[in-house]
Amino acid sequence: MFLGSISAPINTFFKKAGASIPKLARLGIFTIADLLRHYPRDWEDRKTKVPIKDFEKSAVCTSVTVVAREFSGYGANRFMKVYVKDEEGHPDSHAVLMFFKINNRSWIEKQLVVDSKINIYGKFKYRANEIQSSAFDYELFSSSESFGKIMPIYPLTSKLAQKTLRRFVLNALQQFKDIENELPCEIIKKYDLLAKKDALRAIHYPLSFEELEKAKKTLIYEELFYLEVMIAKRALERKKIKTQLNDKEIKDNDFSALQKQLIQRLPFTLTKGQIDAVKEINNDMKSPLVPMARLLQGDVGSGKTLVSFLAALNALQEGQAVIMAPTELLARQHAENAVRILEPLGIKIAYLTGNIKAKGRKELLNNLASGEIDIAVGTHALFSKDVVYKNLKLAVIDEQHRFGVTQRALITSKGEKTNLLMMSATPIPRTLALTVFGDMDISVIKDKPEGRLPVITHLAKESNAKKVYDFTRDELKKGRQAYFVYPLIDADLAGDEDIKAAVSMAEKLSKEIFKGFNVALVHSKIPDDEKNQIMNDFRSGKINILAATSVVEVGVDVPNATCMIIEHADRFGLSALHQLRGRVGRGKDQSYCFLVYSDEYSEAAKARLLVMHKNNDGFVIAEEDLKLRGPGQITGTVQSGYMELGIADPVRDIEELTRAREDVFSIMENDPDLLLSCNRVIARVLQEAPYFRDFII
Ligand code: ADP
Ligand code: MG
Questions:
Q1: Higher pLDDT, 131 or 411
Q2: What is the rounded average pLDDT of the residues 207-226?
Q3: Residue to probe by mutation, ligand 1, list 275, 302, 553, most atoms within 8 Å of CB
Q4: Whose CA is nearest to atom 12 of ligand 1?
Q5: 3-state SS class at 127
Q6: How far away, in angstroms, is 52 Cα from ligand 2 center?
Q7: Atom 25 of ligand 1 has which residue's CA nearest to it?
Q8: Model-level pTM?
Q9: How far apart are CA 435 and CA 429, in angstroms?
Q10: More confident call, 587 vs 199
Q11: What is the Cα–Cα distance from 332 to 327, expressed in whole angstroms?
């Protein structure tokens, strides 16, 4: 039996688990398999003896004898001191165990009588001439379970005791002893991995730290192996069908009638990158068998939105399209653009976010279900349970990296063979892209719309801020607009008085620095209606200056804005700075970005901002960002972002990942139906106990 097949609910095995069931559920543990896959976050060494005299070096772990007891306090506050000594015969071999509120735990008093022998584990401190501890574990010699072992420490939720979880896991390990290997035996041999049942036992209760390392190695490899199996399966299937299609069909490189109409009405011509991307998309969507799965990468300002509109027009020949954005601000902007550009072609657009009120929403949902609406633009609300489409042909995900783990299954379940187009300005390191988007096709827009001048970026010390303001004033007088971005909404709230924040600076910009110009404030706490109004007024030019937090980081598009002033620029990451800078340089006029930084800023940190001064290319900046931040930080993003695995981490374990990928692709290319005896196990796992229930992108 595979681990994943042990789908029996916890309570069928642990009759007395009753009260723990909801607590386990909160940890995502419902079945025995979930329980055994709840790996420890750390391990406690109760195997290596540490005598009391070494209490300053690490936790004490030793056998002791009770030599005396002392009671103080009254009633609920009565407490007991238990004096113990170990066998070292050292002056520092005596210690004191503190038991507070002993009245509630009278059994302890009965257990720990003078001369009783116990094992203790805990951190001790020198206090009042004694070596004391109030945070320790003890077990009577006669019934000691954990001493002499390496004990697991599990991630917990409130109220579930470490002990309880340990007992469940230990029991489960004892009951399910013959769990089968999921890796082909040759792979296990090749890397000298443990058998699955041994790895499982050893990850929870390792006999030694060497064995623990081996268990980790085994489970990490197995996880990455099956991740790659899923990717390889898809990739190879797509490849097969595609080659069949290409043999039969000659590529038709023309645009559809609707697409041509839109292109004719545009005040500009498409860039080569846009044309190529649309053609690739058109081709993908022609296939009746394989839905499109394409990632469109293009730097900020490269015109991805228009490509998504053209893709949507293609989808309308057969059904509907949705365009999803990560924030309401951006969704709204896309919806307004769609109305402006597409409605004149007779296309019905709807805007759907979580904020739409009940009545309007109901009508909207009806129109989506009946097919009355052609294109829906919105936030993730587009994929809420109650939203039904008549015939969803295309889902566009803008700023894909913002969505974190996007479940392809969820999106494509809204239609039959729904085509998927993901768009991102954030370049992903190649190795990671191979894993996460391993079965996707990638289009890259390398060029920018014609006539765009690269944004000129200046670094400015805070003491020179006045010069920046003067320069900006001249631009405003020419009729241009400006963004001022701050790291915080309100400095008071952060308890940091020296820092300029959006709220107070908006006031200052309006009343002092730029008197006579219209200044507005946007940040995440401003109600949506108000935010929309402000953005509309900024777009139409009624507002000259927008003071903001990084809410304007993503996607906002106002071509007449030519100045981006980022104060306390040192507090932003390079990628965020690049995104922010991408808000200007969107029209024909020369644009400027000022990175204002504190006078005390270190040279090393200034070097970071210089990267922005020297480079305009998002890919280069992202690479520099990776170098400067180091893998630790990236790991964080990856974990909260692209994928959630159990024990593996695709960035930390990049070597294993690469090996797993090579192994899997070589197996599946040579034996695509997994018929060879050593590979059959893979087919069985996929069928009987799929490793990833909701396979991620
Ligand atoms: P991003 O790729 O960052 O999402 P947008 O789609 O927001 O970029 O496009 C940026 C701006 O460029 C928009 O104002 C858009 O109308 C304009 N634009 C798009 N394509 C072209 C083009 N081929 N020529 C000129 N301007 C274009
Ligand atoms: Mg965009």
A1: 131
A2: 95
A3: 302
A4: 303
A5: strand
A6: 62
A7: 449
A8: 0.65
A9: 10
A10: 199
A11: 8
